[in-house]
Amino acid sequence: MPVWLVTGTSQGIGLELTKQLAKNDANTVIATCRAPARATGLAGLAAARVNVHIVALDVLSNASVHSALSAAQTILGERGVDYLINNAGIGHRVGNNTTTAEMLELMFQTHIVVALRVFPNGIRR
Ligand SMILES: NC(=O)c1ccc[n+]([C@@H]2O[C@H](COP(=O)([O-])OP(=O)(O)OC[C@H]3O[C@@H](n4cnc5c(N)ncnc54)[C@H](OP(=O)(O)O)[C@@H]3O)[C@@H](O)[C@H]2O)c1
């Protein structure tokens, strides 16, 4: 009965991954996204599949990571997360004229620093 926690599931690859994982009834998917109220495709999936649970999570915020893990714990009870798919990300073609220091910093925070923010907290059995 594997438990998956996927970040950034409001759209794109994260939503599709969640759909594919949900097809297997043995999987439990904690599908996280920044703004559940705006994630209508994900909400539709969770309404149709009992093994999909939506939890709010902004990977840039320690407080959000902690409250998401606490919400996941309430859903999972004694079970822990078996697989963490840290999919959340932002697309930006680095090197074109619109690249700014702020954008680079945001990308670094979202794609690199997140490994330390979410992973050590997320995989705890
Ligand atoms: N598509 C590609 O060709 C490609 C290539 C290489 C790598 N990737 C990587 O694959 C991943 C998914 O790509 P995609 O094409 O599916 O991108 P996408 O359609 O833009 O989706 C990105 C997802 O990440 C979420 N997200 C962004 N910042 C977040 C944050 N701070 N906290 C939580 N969620 C956040 C977005 O949520 P919101 O809806 O709240 O914005 C969205 O659900 C990304 O990490 C991307 O860098 C993609």
Protein traits:
alpha/beta; Rossmann fold; 125 residues; binds NADP nicotinamide-adenine-dinucleotide phosphate; four-stranded parallel sheet
Helix content: 40-55%
Q: What's the tally of helices? A: 4
Round the mean pLDDT to the nearest integer and report it. Answer: 90
Beta content comes to 5-15%
Spatial extent as radius of gyration: 15 Å
CATH fold annotation: Rossmann fold
Q: State the low-pLDDT regions, or none.
A: none
Large-scale geometry: globular
Secondary structural class: alpha/beta
Q: Please give the largest β-sheet.
A: 4 strands, parallel
Which strands sit side by side, in order, in the main sheet?
A: 3-2-1-4
Question: Structurally, how many domains make up the residues?
Answer: 1
Termini Cα gap: 14 Å
- CATH class descriptor name: Alpha Beta
Order of helices and strands: EHEHEHEH
The CATH H-level superfamily is NAD(P)-binding Rossmann-like Domain
**Total beta-strand segments:** 4
Bound molecules: NADP nicotinamide-adenine-dinucleotide phosphate
CATH architecture designation: 3-Layer(aba) Sandwich
InterPro entries: NAD(P)-bd_dom_sf, SDR_enzymes, SDR_fam
GO molecular function: oxidoreductase activity, acting on the CH-OH group of donors, NAD or NADP as acceptor
Organism: Auricularia subglabra (strain TFB-10046 / SS5) (White-rot fungus)
Protein name: NAD(P)-binding protein
What does this structure look like?
GO terms for molecular function: oxidoreductase activity, acting on the CH-OH group of donors, NAD or NADP as acceptor. This is NAD(P)-binding protein. It comes from Auricularia subglabra (strain TFB-10046 / SS5) (White-rot fungus). InterPro entries: NAD(P)-bd_dom_sf, SDR_enzymes, SDR_fam. The protein has 125 residues and is of the alpha/beta class. The chain has a single domain, classed as Rossmann fold (3-Layer(aba) Sandwich), CATH 3.40.50. It contains 4 helices and 4 strands. Strands 3-2-1-4 form a 4-stranded parallel sheet, with helices on both faces. β1 (3-6), α1 (12-22) and β2 (28-33) form a beta-alpha-beta unit. α3 (62-76) packs parallel to α4 (101-122). The longest helix is centred in the C-terminal third of the chain and has 22 residues, at 101-122. The two termini are 14 Å apart. NADP nicotinamide-adenine-dinucleotide phosphate is lined by residues 7-8, 10-14, 33-35, 57-60, 87-91, 110.
